[in-house]
C-alpha cells in the first residue's frame, strides 16, 4: 500500500507540485482575484520568516493588510520583518515569538494577543520535520506537537477572536507528502514503530488537515 501511495504521489507531484504544474494551473487564474487589496484586515501567519509563510506575509503587506508574524527564531524573524517592511512600505507588521510545540505558551500568547489586537484571518503555515524522535518538555513528540497539536491549540484559542470580525477565515497549509500515508490515529506519538521523520510529518499534516475540515 505504501508503494502504491508513493507511486501515485510521485505521478501527481510531477504533474501538479512542480513549477510546470503551477504554470499550468495559473492559466485559469482570474487576474482581478490576484489584485485584491486588504487594508483594514489583519492576518496572522505562522512560520512567516521564510518560505511560503514569508512570501504570503509580503503579498498581504503589499496589499495593505496588517500582518502578525508568529515565529520561533527571533533573529530570523526580525530580519524577515524588516525586509517585508522595506519592500512593501507597510509599517503594520508585528512580530510575535512563540514556540508552537508548547501548548501553554500558545494559550498565553493568545490571551495577550486578544487584549491588543483584532484578527480577520489565521494562516497556519508553520511546520517542522525532525528526523530523530524528540520529546518536548511536556513529553510530546516534537513533530506532532508542532504540526498537529500546535495547529489545533492555536486555531481553537483564536476562534473567539476571529468570530468578532466580518468574514473571518482559517487557512491551513498542508503538504502533498500527506498523500503517501494513510491517516492513522492509533500512534500519534510515534512510539510503536521505527521512527521516520518524513512519514511522521506526512501523518501530522494529514491529521491537521482532517481536523480543520471537520471543524469548519
Automatic annotation (TrEMBL):
Transmembrane segment boundaries: none
One Pfam family from the record: adh_short
InterPro entries per UniProt: NAD(P)-bd_dom_sf, SDR_fam, SDR_member_12
PANTHER family xref list: DEHYDROGENASE/REDUCTASE SDR FAMILY MEMBER 12 (PTHR44656), DEHYDROGENASE_REDUCTASE SDR FAMILY MEMBER 12 (PTHR44656:SF7)
Name under which the protein is recorded: Dehydrogenase/reductase SDR family member 12 isoform X11
Gene: DHRS12
Amino acid at each position: 500500500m505504501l508503494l502504491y501511495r508513493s507511486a501515485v504521489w510521485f505521478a501527481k507531484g510531477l504533474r501538479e507540485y512542480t513549477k510546470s504544474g503551477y504554470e499550468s494551473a495559473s492559466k485559469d487564474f482570474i487576474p482581478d482575484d490576484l489584485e485584491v487589496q486588504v487594508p483594514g484586515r489583519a492576518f496572522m501567519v505562522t512560520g512567516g520568516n521564510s518560505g511560503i509563510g514569508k512570501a504570503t506575509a509580503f503579498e498581504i503587506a503589499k496589499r495593505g493588510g496588517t500582518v502578525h508574524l508568529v515565529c520561533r527564531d527571533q533573529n530570523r524573524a526580525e530580519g524577515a520583518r524588516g525586509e517585508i517592511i522595506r519592500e512593501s512600505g507597510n509599517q503594520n507588521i508585528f512580530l510575535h515569538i512563540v514556540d508552537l510545540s508548547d501548548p501553554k505558551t500558545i494559550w498565553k500568547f493568545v490571551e495577550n494577543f486578544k487584549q491588543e489586537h483584532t484578527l480577520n484571518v489565521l494562516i497556519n503555515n508553520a511546520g517542522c520535520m525532525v528526523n530523530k524522535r524528540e520529546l518536548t518538555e511536556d513529553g510530546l513528540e516534537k513533530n506532532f506537537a508542532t504540526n498537529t497539536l500546535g495547529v489545533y491549540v492555536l486555531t481553537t484559542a483564536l476562534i473567539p477572536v476571529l468570530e468578532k470580525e466580518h468574514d473571518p477565515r482559517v487557512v491551513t497549509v498542508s503538504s502533498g507528502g500527506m498523500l503517501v500515508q494513510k491517516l492513522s490515529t492509533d500512534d500519534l506519538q510515534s512510539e510503536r514503530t521505527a521512527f521516520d521523520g518524513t512519514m511522521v510529518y506526512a501523518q501530522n499534516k494529514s491529521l491537521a488537515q482532517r481536523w480543520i475540515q471537520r471543524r469548519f
